[in-house]
Amino acid sequence: MTKDDLIAYWVESSESNRKSMQNMFVNNEYVWSLFIGHLCIEKLLKACYVQEVDTIVPRIHDLYKLAVKCNLEMSEEQMDALLYVTLFNIEARYEEYKREFHKKCTKEFTEKNLKKIEKLRKWLLAKIKN
Questions:
Q1: Which of 5, 21, 57, 124 has the fewest C-beta atoms lying within 10 Å of its C-beta?
Q2: Where are the alpha helices (DSSP H) in the chain?
């Protein structure tokens, strides 16, 4: 696979996750909607990594650490959003956090955080296209 093929793969996979994220939200599956939203951003960061660093992406899920490895310039708001959205990976996946996360994941909470995810998505897509 060429570098461009890998970037396209990560972007397309992210878009597929975005559609799933939206479908899950519509179906009131708020925890999983946010979990998949995390994957959507993770995959765009991996596309950035391929574009900027190397074709072999690190096997990490921490969005902020991935962004740093990509040498991305970030605002404080973007840093905070990456750190916060990373929690959705942990809180949706591990039993010791799941119960409290389920309580937190109201429609309003999820909607607010999906907007953060969309904002990050647009920022990363702009970086990939440049």
A1: 5
A2: 3-26, 30-52, 63-69, 76-93, 95-104, 107-129
Q: Distance (Å, rounded) from C-alpha 26 to C-alpha 36?
A: 14
The residues, any chain, with a CB within 8 Å of residue 29's CB and separated by 6 or more, are none
Q: What is the pLDDT of residues 2-32, one digit of tens each?
A: 999 999 999 999 999 999 999 999 999 999 9
The domain limits of the chain are 3-129
Q: Are 38 and 14 in contact (CB under 8 A)?
A: no
Residue type, 107: K
- pTM confidence score: 0.94
Q: What are the pLDDT digits (tens) for 47-100?
A: 999 999 999 999 999 999 999 999 999 999 999 999 999 999 876 666 777 788
* C-alpha pair distances (Å), 22 with each of 1, 17, 25, 52, 118: 30, 9, 5, 29, 11
- CB of 70 closer than 8 Å to CB of 45: yes
